[in-house]
Design brief:
Blueprint (H helix, E strand, L loop, with lengths): L5 E3 L4 H11 L3 E5 L5 E6 H9 L19 E2 L4 H4 L9 E5 L5 E6 L17 H11 L7 H13 L4 E5 L2 H11 L7 E5 L5 H8 L3 E5 L10 H7 L4 E4 L11 H11 L2 E5 L7 E2 L2 E2 L6 E5 L12 E5 L2 H11 L22 H12 L1 H18 L6 E3 L7 E2 L5 E5 L4 H10 L5 E2 L19 H8 E4 L7 H13 L1
Parallel strand pairs: 1-2, 4-5, 8-9, 8-10, 10-11, 11-14
Antiparallel strand pairs: 2-3, 5-6, 7-15, 12-13, 12-17, 14-15, 16-18, 18-20, 19-20
Length: 470
């Protein structure tokens, strides 16, 4: 772990940020070519330097302060502890040659979030370029690039950015003409945004159960719920797992129904080697901070239909004509993403394959470290035609102690999350329930662990294993 905390003094501030992001300790120990400690730099120090006019390509050795706190290897715990204060939380331990041999971390109140955005690429550079261009609102080159490149990533023709993933769903429903008197089938186990978007239109949601193995909407239950008023199905690719799109597309075609894919948690997942978002009439994505890639807040609709693309762009921008400024063709909305946010999105998208690989490595580590615990069941990764991605590391606790483990882990500062409540269990949605059984069982047992690449995993695994085995 020590090597992950070291940064050469001839490295740049950008290099230092990358090391900090990878080690999860929010600090680097700056060493010279002989590995002699010559300074300490935190993420807060770098932030203040940038605000003070420094640049990411400046050498660390020219900036780092020579007065810093460290401890000698022979010092006792009682001697080291007084060196900590409100700002110093980690101290390097050195030998007589000033080489770093260990570190001491004061971890009272430590917090490991369930997810943390990886902003180690071109995010800052593109964001500053957009800022300095003065195109900081809903027009600019990054918005156009993001729409083009993300739709290409999804193997679709058109991308329409939105201010968040929820309004992406609403925009899709509006573009398809869904409204009062219509029914839209949604899964019972999903985040509330899925059903809320249907309710925004005045349509009636119909809640159906999920498959036991995939945790995604069950096509057999969809078939049972279809009526003459049914106009659309919203399959949710839950926790990165693709829904059974063969069966859902077949049902939609037979019954002349629209498909709106909720891909908020599944960027890059595939079914039968096709990316999610490319099966339905419209695919909807979220770029919230805890998603696979992020713009802080933000969303995207993707489609292969030029007609739907045009309609969504008009609806997104106050219903204004695409060709005649301030001429409003329909009543629209302000659902636009800013160029600043899109700049971050472009940088994120450049590294999405790496991000996905890193997240898969995280899940592989969990599977390895938690093997042998017979009452846990990881999310399936062997379902025919489905290639899931890792959003959160999700599994089932099958000994009915899920809530106890959640409390204990959160007390240790590890932000594990229980699964979403089934919509059928929430009072305001109960009247829309058609079927619910597997969803209730899965929700009660489900738990998601942090997906922080390179972030204190040894600590996470130690606490999780200890608590699960107590």
């Amino acid at each position: 772990m020590i090597k992950k905390l070291l940064c050469r003094n001839d490295s740049t501030l950008m290099d230092a940020l990358s090391i900090i992001d990878a080690n999860g300790k929010r600090v680097v120990f700056v060493v010279d070519k002989n590995n002699k400690l010559c300074g300490i730099l935190t993420d807060g120090d770098i932030r203040r330097l940038l605000l003070g006019g420094h640049h990411l390509h400046e050498k660390v050795g020219n900036i780092v302060k020579s007065d810093f706190v460290y401890a000698k290897a022979r010092e006792t715990y009682k001697e080291i502890l007084p060196k900590f204060n409100d700002t110093i939380k980690i101290i390097p331990i050195v030998n007589d040659a000033m080489e770093v041999v260990n570190y001491f971390q004061y971890d009272e109140g430590i917090h490991i979030p369930v997810a943390n955005p990886d902003l180690s690429g071109n995010e800052y550079r593109y964001l500053m370029h957009a800022f300095l261009s003065s195109w900081i609102s809903s027009s600019g080159i990054y918005k156009d690039i993001f729409e083009k490149e993300f739709s290409k990533f999804c193997s679709t023709k058109y991308g329409i950015t939105t201010s968040n993933g929820t309004v992406a769903l609403h925009l899709a429903l509006l573009a398809l003409g869904i409204g009062k008197g219509d029914e839209v089938i949604v899964p019972d186990l999903t985040f509330a945004a899925t059903i809320n978007a249907v309710l925004y239109t005045g349509a009636t949601p119909v809640i159906v159960d999920i498959e036991k193995d995939s945790w995604c909407i069950d096509p057999a239950r969809i078939k049972e719920a279809i009526t003459r008023r049914t106009k659309a199905i919203i399959p949710v690719h839950l926790y990165g797992q693709p829904a059974d799109m063969d069966a859902i597309v077949s049902l939609a075609r037979k019954n002349k129904l629209f498909i709106i894919e909720d891909c908020a948690e599944a960027h890059g997942a595939t079914f039968d080697n096709r990316k999610v978002g490319s099966f339905g009439d419209i695919g909807c994505f979220s770029f919230f901070a805890n998603k696979v890639i992020t713009t802080g807040e933000g969303g995207m609709c993707v489609t292969n239909s030029p007609r739907l693309s045009k309609k969504m762009k008009i609806l997104r921008d106050h219903g204004m004509s695409l060709n005649k400024k301030y001429w409003h063709e329909i009543v629209g909305y302000n659902y636009r993403l800013t160029n600043l946010q899109a700049a971050i999105g472009v940088a994120q998208l450049e590294r999405i394959d790496t991000i996905l690989r890193n997240r898969q490595k995280i899940e592989d580590e969990y599977r390895k470290n938690l093997s042998g615990i017979d009452f846990i069941e990881f999310q399936r990764n062997d379902l025919p035609k489905r290639k899931k991605i890792v959003w959160l590391v999700s599994l089932l606790i099958k000994n009915k102690k899920r809530d106890l483990y959640v409390r204990r882990l959160q007390q240790k500062g590890i932000d594990v999350r229980p699964f979403f409540y089934p919509l059928s269990s929430i009072k305001i949605y109960k009247k829309y329930v058609f079927s619910a059984k597997n969803s209730v069982d899965i929700s009660r047992a489900g738990i998601s662990f942090p997906t922080l690449y390179g972030k204190a995993h040894d600590d996470i695994f130690w606490h999780i294993k200890k608590i699960l085995r107590d």
